[in-house]
Amino acid sequence: MANLAATYRNQGRWEEAETLEVQVMETRKTKLGADHPSTLTSMANLAATYRNQGRWEEAETLEVQVMETRKTKLGADHPDTLTSIANLASTYMNQGRWEEAETLEVQVMETRKTKLGADHPDTLTSMNNLAHT
Questions:
Q1: Cα separation, 24 vs 76, whole angstroms
Q2: Separation of alpha carbons 21 and 38, rounded Å
Q3: How many of the other CB atoms lie within 10 Å of CB of 27?
């Protein structure tokens, strides 16, 4: 179901993607728990669907939940946590919330530089995101 939802999201079929993503998220919450990595991934996917539609508040609410839970469960410098922070920064950037986006993007970039090196593709992506903002 999650894969089909991703296909719909990639095609811009937002309502169909959202319907499946909500179902996957709720089922994973029930079966695996709210803080399970798969549940968090499904929440992030739903947030991406909201972000792609300009539904900023809904995207932000989920992204903050995912980010905070990953910080607690995985640590602030875990790759999944950093991706969550970058996603939230993207939501801020798309709203013109430049300072908030910049703060998060600098954090992601600096952590990736330290953990992965300055020439790692993820670090370079972070640098590009910051430059874009």
A1: 26
A2: 12
A3: 13
Give me the pLDDT at residue 40, please: 97
Report how far residue 12's alpha carbon sits from residue 126's, in angstroms, rounded to the nearest whole number. Answer: 25
pLDDT of residue 124: 97
If one counts every other C-beta atom within 10 angstroms of the C-beta of residue 62, the result is 26
Q: How is residue 80 written in tokens?
A: 């999944």
Residue with tokens 């640098």: 127
Handedness of CA 68, 71, 73, 79 (dihedral sign): positive
| Torsion angles phi and psi, residue 102, rounded to 5 | -60, -45
Give tens-digit pLDDT for 58-85: 999 999 999 999 999 999 999 999 999 9
Name which of 77, 56, 82 is nearest 67 in CA terms: 82
User: CB within 8 A of 122, min separation 6: which ones?
Assistant: 79, 82, 112, 116
